[in-house]
Amino acid sequence: MRRKVAAVSRSRRTPYLQAEFDDAIWKVVSRIRPGRVMSYGAVARAAGYPRHARMVGRSLGRAPTPLPWHRVVRSDLTLAFAPGSERYAEQRRRLADEGVGLEADRVVPTESDSIEDLDRLLWGSPVS
DNA sequence: CCCTTGACTATCT
DNA sequence: GAGATAGCCAAGG
To answer: Read out DSSP for A11-71?
Structure first.
């Protein structure tokens, strides 16, 4: 059923529907492969909403169905939650379970991952 | 309206 | 590489 979030943005710039935004974001996140991570900004761009990195976390918090939210990290590969917080611990645990290397609060890129293509590499595989 | 707050980022020092 | 800074943008007070 259609959620009735009437929340049309009151922004002076880009009018947008929260429901559509959420659907786009959730779809992208649900496709991140296990053992891989993607940045908030990359998710936003892949969903068609450049410059909306800050909105991604908000959207994930609204997700009704289980989503691999733990695969979304900052562009510098650090976790966005406060170290010591419950959600921080949860994210670390889930990533570790998938074999993702962690150094302090930062994901350790695989040797095959190159910094320049993080967007694509983090995504996992070319969108086909 | 104005101001503050974030699950953010790119770019300087 | 760690901080500081300036953009970013929707929500909520």
So the answer is: -SS---BHHHHHHHHHHHHHTSPTT--EEHHHHHHHTT-TT-HHHHHHHHHH-SS---GGG
Closest nucleotide to A67, Cα to C1': B7
Residue A78 CB lies within 7 Å of the nucleic strand C:
no
Name the strand (E) or helix (H) holding A122.
helix A118-123
Q: Say yes or no: Cβ of A17 under 7 A from any atom of strand C.
A: no
pTM of the model: 0.85
Distance separating alpha carbons of residues A53 and A112, to the nearest angstrom: 26
The DSSP call for residue A77 is S
Q: What is the mean pLDDT of residues A37-48?
A: 95
Question: Among all strands, which nt has the closest C1' to A62 (CA)?
Answer: B7
